[in-house]
Amino acid sequence: ATQLMGDAEGASHDILITVTGAETEDDAVTVGRSVARNSLFKTAVFGNDPNWGRVLAAIGTTDAQFDPYDTDVTMNGVRVCTKGGPDRPREDVDLTPRTTTVEIDLRSGSESATIMTNDLTHAYVHENSAYSS
Whole-model pTM above 0.85? Predict the structure, then answer.
């Protein structure tokens, strides 16, 4: 799975999203997939923008049990959101490495899951729009 992610068309970041503190494993998977599939989140990572608001917005589209005012988001080892609000400045987060880690603590239980995805780049859009089927 890691090799497939690394070979993705035009991707510049391999993103590992780990959700902890979920009430159920299904909640952890649902939250991770929602963030992983969110185009705004994926383009923020491409732009090296640790936009935790896009992470919370993606979580908010799910039916997972969580309190947005008791959720933490960490990107590449820097907690950018604590209890639903800003923590460290965006300048503290280095998103230039190929591997990007996102840790989401829902504080609703003891279940967890990790979802893998990649960013959404100009090259990806071009490659997938340059031909017709």
Answer: yes
